[in-house]
């Protein structure tokens, strides 16, 4: 059993890592996490000897919540509603916590419990897709890997803006995706969520390279 001061240090490290991972992703230097937690680097490594150990500990609850979202979708009697609510909830989680998506999409071969829970979520998602297709509401050519495309787009749209705008942007983007994924035109009369207050000047310049110039000889 950990001493009281050791438990306190462990909690401080986890809280600092959770905050930094959510804002900056899981590649934050361990030294930065230690400094943010107010502990020495040696103390951090004593509690969490590897980045994998720290990341998986931080996101265990979030992974369980994600798996619960999939379970709710599987239990929904309306396969399309279950599918669409699942996409919305997962993208909301991503928009508010950048680190979780990175952790979910990263392999952690030594974190057996984390990997098992992630595989369960992935298998459940594939079954949600199968049910929605069988209902005739989801396009027949939708593939489970399209979830990665959705998450990549959602990440790109929400990473460098303030949290409130990120949430608004995510909701509208997901609504566009779901309209594209659904068969027929039953959603045409349903208004989209409000647009986010974004202009082209907010597009990160490093993501928009200009034309390649030929070097002068």
Automatic annotation (TrEMBL):
Domain of life where this protein originates: Bacteria
DNA-binding region per UniProt: 29-48
A Pfam short name: TetR_C_43
Annotated signal peptide: none
Domain HTH tetR-type: 7-66
Region (Disordered): 184-217
InterPro entries (alphabetical): Homeodomain-like_sf (IPR009057), HTH-type_TetR-like_transc_reg (IPR050109), HTH_TetR (IPR001647), Tet_transcr_reg_TetR-rel_C_sf (IPR036271), TetR_SbtR-like_C (IPR049445)
One Gene Ontology term of the molecular function aspect: DNA-binding transcription factor activity
Keyword terms of this UniProt record: DNA-binding, Transcription, Transcription regulation
Entry annotated with the keyword Transport: no
This protein's record includes keyword Secreted: no
Stated name of the protein: DNA-binding transcriptional regulator, AcrR family
Classification lineage: Bacteria, Bacillati, Actinomycetota, Actinomycetes, Pseudonocardiales
